[in-house]
Amino acid sequence: MYTVNVMAGRPPTKEAPPFGQRMATLRQERGMSQTELAERLNMSRAMVTYYERKATNPTADVIQRIADALGVGVDALLVDANGGRSRQRPGPASQFEQQLAEVRRLPRNKQKFVVDFLDTFLQREAKSAH
Prior knowledge:
The chain is mainly alpha-helical. Helices cover 56% and strands 0% of the residues. The protein has two domains: 1-90, 434 Repressor (Amino-terminal Domain), CATH 1.10.260.40; 94-130. The chain has helices at residues 18-29, 34-41, 45-53, 60-70, 95-105, 108-129. It starts with 17 loop residues before the first helix and ends with a helix.
């Protein structure tokens, strides 16, 4: 349901869809305005408002971009089959989550370099643990 703490502007005439409610809540938990999120997404504030208040079926690409901008996994924006909330902990994203979001914005070839580096590191750690 609409609350002053989650969505800005004039109250909507009907309840926002679950995706929009989660998006607005996560944005607010991170201390971001709609304008700040719009800048991160390279879209207008009106589009952010649309996704928070009206969009019932955003594309996978939009969901991923919003998750990256908020520093969360896609699952944090989606509601489970029972209508429950995600188990995402409140508060700002961890440094690792923020870095992962930055890696997701890199071109594919640079993402592959980071993944290869992590694979090598994790393999060495696994060997040294045994």
